Prior knowledge:
This protein is mostly helical. The protein contains seven helices and no strands.
Amino acid sequence: MEEKNNKKVSETKPQFAIFDWIVSLPVIRIVKPLYEWKRAFWIYCFLGFVSTVCNYVFTIVLADKLLLSGTVANISAWVLSTLISFVLFRYLYFDRTNNSFINELIKFASARIFTLGFETLTVFVFVDLLHMNLKIIKAVLIPVTAILNYFISKLFVFKNKEQ
């Protein structure tokens, strides 16, 4: 019973208030029952979607417009989208911790280096060596990277020192 109460409390975090307000708007209200059913999940998905779109767009723009290699474009986009992702998740999703901003940013970036390595190796092999389509490879990598990033953030980055 206590676990169920704790889950309900975690799903009504103060930082979720902006999302609750958005879902209460007249046109969007239609999805409110689905949103309330798994609020934390949908908010995580939305923030992850924003970060993913940033990463994808940055990669494509850097590769297509600045003519960078797929690997260089991917790493550059990773740096930009990791900063955006950190700010979004720190302030709009995960519970406040007693860790400093810089401490969490370093942990967040360090933890994401694992998925950067995975992405970079995959892009290098499939795009730079095998000349496959960068847009397709990035699209395939999105769900795998999102799942890895969630667990890394939850288990290692956004938790209090005492936990």
